[in-house]
Design a protein that fits this description.
It is a single chain. The protein is α+β, with helices and mostly antiparallel strands. Strand 5 and strand 6 form a beta hairpin. The longest helix has 9 residues.
């Protein structure tokens, strides 16, 4: 992966949009994730700073701008520093 980029499933897991990395990958393959307005086809899709990720989960649909890629899956306050929620959505 190029510097400044990260796998989409890994970022979703780090940002706590999914409880496990395999569930994050399933969100992508089942078509519940868009990257910059286009459906993400694979969980290996690269995400970078400034990209807009839209997740249509069972509990809510959230559009978020990527602010940081993260290096680990930390506590919720740390995960919330990885993105900025756009619009009225709540994470």
């Amino acid at each position: 992966m190029k510097p400044g980029r990260q796998r989409l499933d890994k970022w979703l897991w780090f940002a706590r949009f999914a409880r496990t990395r395999s569930l994050a990958a399933r969100l992508v393959t089942d078509g519940h994730v868009r990257l910059n307005g286009k459906r993400a086809e694979t969980s290996a899709t690269a995400v970078g700073l400034g990209d807009v990720v839209t997740v249509a989960a069972a509990h809510a649909t959230v559009a978020a701008r990527v602010l940081d890629l993260g290096e680990r899956r930390g506590p919720a306050p740390e995960a919330q520093t990885l993105y900025e929620v756009l619009g009225d959505g709540a994470a």
